[in-house]
């Protein structure tokens, strides 16, 4: 089986690093800090969206300023690793899936460079056959193109996407793939209200959840 994972809010709790980076970039523009829940609620649609929301929270709409802040965010992003934690059970679940012969991939809206940097920092990068990021395609999730690209890079066979948010649910549906929705991530609506093939509240249960979805694989 091919198992493709979202990153922020699914495998890692990266909101504290993204929050710190956001406030560094805001300070560089002479703008005040935002709190963690506010910045967390902006995660999931990539850096352009996040920076637009940071400015929006200050009542500002200014395209050149937004472009400058996106570039600044990018300068800090690869080193934004120290406040991030891996969700419980993730390393064990990934190792188990690999040992069972499954092919694993990443499809995130985080750009590829910081996605690879954080995966390397937490010791998980080697599990993945491919890392598709928010800058890998002209389109970002919820467009299906990045997920379909990740899938084709992983070879042939049944595919499941594991994600945490509305964006992932919409992306999986558009790509025609089943979604396993991790419930401790950064979504806005109750988990039950998002389209999903299965809910996952504990990574220790992922192998059995996948078996139940794809008994024949
Ligand atoms: O919004 C981002 O940059 C990344 O979010 P994702 O890993 O949940 O796709
Ligand atoms: Mg996510």
From TrEMBL:
It catalyses: 2-phosphoglycolate + H2O = glycolate + phosphate. It comes from the Bacteria. Mg(2+) binds at residues 6, 8, 164. Keywords: Carbohydrate metabolism, Hydrolase, Magnesium, Metal-binding. GO terms for biological process: carbohydrate metabolic process; DNA repair; glycolate biosynthetic process. The keyword Metal-binding applies. Specifically catalyzes the dephosphorylation of 2-phosphoglycolate. Is involved in the dissimilation of the intracellular 2-phosphoglycolate formed during the DNA repair of 3'-phosphoglycolate ends, a major class of DNA lesions induced by oxidative stress. HAMAP family: GPH_hydrolase_bact (MF_00495). Belongs to the HAD-like hydrolase superfamily. CbbY/CbbZ/Gph/YieH family. This is Phosphoglycolate phosphatase.
């Amino acid at each position: 089986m091919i198992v493709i994972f979202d990153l922020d809010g699914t495998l890692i709790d990266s909101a504290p690093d993204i929050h710190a980076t956001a406030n560094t970039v805001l300070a560089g523009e002479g703008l005040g800090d935002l709190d963690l829940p506010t910045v967390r609620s902006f995660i999931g649609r990539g850096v352009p969206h996040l920076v637009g929301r940071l400015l929006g929270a200050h009542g500002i709409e200014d395209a050149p300023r937004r472009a400058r802040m996106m570039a600044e965010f990018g300068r800090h992003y690869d080193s934004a690793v120290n406040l991030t934690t891996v969700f419980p059970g993730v390393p064990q679940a990934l190792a188990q899936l690999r040992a069972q012969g499954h092919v694993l991939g990443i499809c995130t809206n985080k750009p590829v460079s910081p996605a690879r940097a954080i995966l390397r920092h937490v010791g998980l990068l080697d599990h993945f056959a491919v890392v598709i990021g928010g800058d890998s395609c002209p389109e970002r999730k919820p467009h299906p193109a990045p997920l379909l690209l990740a899938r084709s890079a992983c070879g042939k066979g049944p595919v499941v996407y594991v994600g945490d948010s509305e964006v992932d649910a919409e992306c999986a549906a558009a790509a025609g793939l089943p979604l396993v929705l991790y419930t401790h991530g950064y979504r806005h609506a109750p988990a039950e209200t998002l389209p999903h093939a299965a809910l996952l509240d504990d990574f220790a249960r992922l192998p059995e959840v996948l078996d139940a979805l794809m008994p024949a694989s």
